[in-house]
Structures are given as structure tokens and as C-alpha cells.
Design goal:
The chain contains 8 helices and 11 strands. By secondary structure, it is an alpha/beta fold. The chain has one domain (about 10-235): Carbamate kinase. Helix 1 (about 30-40) packs across helix 3 and helix 5 (about 140-150) packs parallel to helix 7 (about 200-205).
């Protein structure tokens, strides 16, 4: 069997990925399954960074729509991502995968502050690095944080884990006529307003020619298949 096609990757997880079938919070069984999948690719020698969202606990945009100050809501959302990062770290370390959480907002008692050289050194030593608290700035999503961190650590691809098996012309859960794209360009994603990642994140990836692979995380083994270069999900490239 041939080896992995990527040496260093960034996995983007939504906060909702940790909910499983719940409507709120973290399902330990789902966190354990994600940890097993990550541990599997780490065992192949793939240097793995993760950016996780906080939508399963708090979403700043939704709070802003109900009257909360947007910056305040976004900071609260960043703190939610730290909760998720610590839960994921615990799940990974229970599987025997050494993990470090680095946060864009300093909170030394629970995690390390984000320092680029330190993050890269952790990756080089074989540790999984979980980036939390987004970029540390309001008005930026964790999608943008994922694109930024991927560029900073020189990841070769962003693996965007979702609950569907790729990018569709419309929501496949709502529109049965929605068509799947196996490959699509950054410009097409932006022009068609496809909800792959937000426009800022896609533009960052386009400017730096960083491919995005969108796949279904809920299928066990899909993460390894993506790493091995199998044609799963959808790929966004130039």
C-alpha cells in the first residue's frame, strides 16, 4: 500500500461535529470516534493540526442577530472553542495521542498561547496541535482561522469535515435535485455562494493556492481515505 499523499494537514472541525445526534454540547462517544480517526492518520506519520469551532455551545453571529454586541458575542464564541479543544484533547490523549492546545487568547492555566514556532515544533515532534479561540479577533470565523493557521504552519491541505459527503449546488438535505461537485475552483465557490467556508477563508486559500478537501466525517475511516489520496468528497483548487 502506498503512503499518505500529505505530510502536514489542517483538519477543520465544526463545533457541531462534537454534538453527534444531540442538540447541544459534546457527545463523548463522538469525540472518541474523531480521536480514533485522528490517531489513525497520526500513526501514518502525518503531522496534524486541528481548528475547531464552537457552534455546539455558543454562536456569536446568532447572538448578535438577537441584539447582543457582535464583538462580545464573538469573544464568547471563541471561549466556546476552547472548551471544545480541551474536550478533544482529552479524547485524543485517552487514545494515546499526545496533543497540545494552543489558544489565540492567552489563558496559560488551561492551554499554551499561540506562538507559531512553538506550534510548528509540536507538529515536528509528532504531537497533534489543536488551535482554539479562532484568530483572537471578533468578526472572523473559525473557517478564516483555519485558513490562516494552515498557511502559517505550511499545511499542504485543509480537510474540511462536514456532515455531508462533499460540496453540492444546494443543501442536499433540502433539495433532492442538488448536484455534487467532485472538483470545483475557488472562484466558482465564491461566484455561486456555496457554503463551503466563508468568503474570507476561501479567498485566503485561493491567494495561496491551498487546496480544500470537503468530506463526510461521520463515515468512519474517511479521514484516512482523504489522507491516502482516495477520491472522496469534493476538492476545491485553482
Amino acid at each position: 500500500m502506498s503512503g499518505p499523499v500529505y505530510r502536514r494537514v489542517l483538519l477543520k472541525l465544526s463545533g457541531e461535529a462534537l454534538m453527534g445526534e444531540q442538540t447541544y454540547g459534546i457527545d463523548p462517544a463522538v469525540a472518541a470516534q474523531i480521536a480514533r480517526d485522528v490517531g489513525e492518520i497520526r500513526a501514518l506519520g502525518v503531522e496534524t493540526a486541528i481548528v475547531i469551532g464552537g457552534g455546539n455551545i455558543f454562536r456569536g453571529v446568532a447572538a448578535s442577530a438577537r441584539g447582543m454586541d457582535r464583538a462580545t458575542g464573538d469573544y464568547m464564541g471563541m471561549l466556546a472553542t476552547v472548551i471544545n479543544a480541551l474536550a478533544l484533547q482529552d479524547a485524543l490523549e485517552q487514545q494515546g495521542t499526545v496533543t497540545r492546545v494552543l489558544t489565540a487568547i492567552e489563558m496559560r492555566e488551561v492551554a499554551e498561547p499561540f506562538i507559531l514556532r512553538r506550534a510548528v515544533r509540536h507538529l515536528e515532534k509528532g504531537r497533534v496541535v489543536v488551535f482554539a479561540a479562532g484568530t483572537g479577533n471578533p468578526y472572523f470565523t473559525t473557517d478564516t482561522a483555519a485558513a490562516l493557521r494552515a498557511m502559517e504552519v505550511r499545511a499542504e491541505v485543509i480537510l474540511k469535515a462536514t456532515k455531508v459527503d462533499g460540496i453540492y449546488s444546494a443543501d442536499p438535505f433540502v433539495d433532492p435535485e442538488a448536484t455534487k461537485y467532485d472538483r470545483i475552483s475557488y472562484l466558482q465557490v465564491l461566484e455561486r455562494r456555496l457554503t463551503v467556508m466563508d468568503a474570507t477563508a476561501v479567498s485566503l486559500c485561493m491567494d495561496n493556492r491551498l487546496p480544500i478537501v470537503v468530506f463526510n466525517l461521520r463515515t468512519p475511516g474517511n479521514l484516512k481515505r482523504a489522507i491516502m489520496g482516495e477520491a472522496i468528497g469534493s476538492t476545491v483548487t485553482a
